[in-house]
Amino acid sequence: MFACTGMLRVHQIMPMKNTTNSNSPVRLGIIGAGAIGRVHAEIFAQIEGVDMAGLFDVNTSLATELADDHNIAKVYDSADALLNSSDLDAVVIGVPNKFHKPLAIQALQAGKHVLLEKPMALNGADAREIYDVQQQTGNTFMIAHQMRWQWIYREILRYADNGAFGKIYAAKTGWLRRSGIPGWGSWFTRKTESGGGPLADIGVHMLDVTRYLMGNPKPVSVFGSIYSELGPRQKGIGGWGTPDWDGFFDVEDLAMALIRMEDGSTLSLEVSWAVHTDRSDNVFTRLMGTEGGAVISDNNSATLCGELFEQPSTIDITTPEHAEDARIGLSRHFIDCIRKQETPITDAFSGLVNNMIIDAIYESAGTGKSVELQL
After folding, report:
1. How large is the average pLDDT for residues 138-152?
2. Strand partners, 115
3. What's this model's pTM, rounded to 2 decimal places?
4. Residue 169, Cβ neighbours under 10 Å: how many?
5. CATH topology for 151-318+355-372?
6. CA-CA distances (angstroms) from residue 255 to 258, 332, 352?
């Protein structure tokens, strides 16, 4: 597992803006050599114009193994050393959620461009601190929401942008895992270390990509409920992460919410790690518009729904066999934004909005009342 415990502190230094030479390779460092860090290393090894120049993890042997596997030039002895190195232009942060804020802020203040794993932070307050520092430094900052680069979502977005659905006034999305609790008892299932359960883990993906398809309407209120019925009894265990049976489970295993937007549209969200349902991993998005709609299933197929000659019409779309890997697209976008000094489509503000919606869901679940959002 990736982990970062010691030597993670924010130095109070003057913010720096990184103006990377567009003709030179982007010198990339990775913090976190666990499962997600390895994914990033494997992907960036395929991106032209990237020099994987540094790596850090508190587990030195894990870091050394990953560096050897992908010819990463240097294994640093601390996160501080990597972030303060003048030999790096950008950093990928793939560590437990509680370290997102301190590492992201330190990286930005040290003049580094940042690709940060989701969610942006433990909560909206921490996400706003990252956002404020990013605004001060002006460095490229991006959240790793790879689903926006999956072929089926990009295809549906193309239809939406061309007006095929008219005004999208309602959407329903979710990711229901029947038995998918990751690393029971570890940081995944501890609120103070993860920020939440499936809402913070996989729900944030569905929230992000569906709002994107809807045109990123501004959320104004949230009503939500959360449940923790199976996880505390060690039921619904998944295959991701390393369990700690001496640990504990104090997050939700099922969440449901209704999000109202400023333009009057609504988004319904359902997400679970463990729930008694008929499928083991059900991912879905439904878009309902004035002129048509779409149903996206399992991240790889969709049905366009409309009316032709006053009769219901449906068209099935399936992801091509050789569609580009979503993380390749995401990673290339990060490098392109650094070179062109452009704002990523999953920027700091998008991450902040997602965190604030999740906060509101938890607050509403606790009070039983709708929560007004102040962005």
Report:
1. 98
2. 92, 142
3. 0.92
4. 17
5. Dihydrodipicolinate Reductase; domain 2 (3.30.360)
6. 11, 33, 20
